[in-house]
Amino acid sequence: MNSNFFDKAFKCAEKALKCDEVPVGCVIVKDNEIISTGYNKKESTNKVISHAEIIAITKAEKKLNNWRLDECDIYVTLDPCPMCASAIKQARIKNVYSALSNSDERNSFIISEIFNADNCNAEVNFETNLYCGKSKKLLNSFFKDKR
């Protein structure tokens, strides 16, 4: 785990906040180098799949010219949702480092199940709650204005 990669993920989340999107950002790293970034764009694109992780995965696939993101790690400011967790696993990303656990216990259980090994894909190493304070502050600033 590398704090510099989290710094970049938080910069992406701040971009989302400035665009009035839920402030989630992420980076994908290979060989200790950032190969792609993403932040939530659901509102601006009107696409339900425009999550930070999906955007970053799509960019990484294009950069590597391969859907297999073997030996890549992802740093994200909030635990992935089940859709993003499935995409992460299908892309064969090795490690997921998350700043903050999702407050929905069902989400945590489901993504844990997704990241377990199965007949087709290896287990995804998943670590969460690595930068709780910073992530909570961003999310609270967004939702405070919405309520």
Percent in strands: 15-25%
Summarize the amount of helix as a percent range.
40-55%
**What's the main sheet like?**
5 strands, mixed
Number of helices: 6
Tell me what you see in this structure.
This protein is an alpha/beta fold and 147 residues long. It is 46% helix and 17% strand. It has six helices and five strands; from the N terminus they run H-E-E-H-H-E-H-E-H-E-H. A five-stranded mixed beta sheet has the order 2-1-3-4-5. Strand 3, helix 4 and strand 4 (95-98) form a beta-alpha-beta unit. Helix 1 (3-18) runs parallel beside helix 6 and helix 4 (82-90) packs parallel to helix 5 (105-115). It is globular, with a radius of gyration of 14 Å. The protein starts with a helix and ends with a helix. The model has no long low-confidence stretch (mean pLDDT 91).
Compile the SSE list and pairings.
Elements: H1 3-18, E1 25-30, E2 33-39, H2 42-45, H3 52-64, E3 72-76, H4 82-90, E4 95-98, H5 105-115, E5 125-127, H6 132-146
Parallel strand pairs: 3-4, 4-5
Antiparallel strand pairs: 1-2, 1-3
Helix pairs in contact: 1-6, 4-5
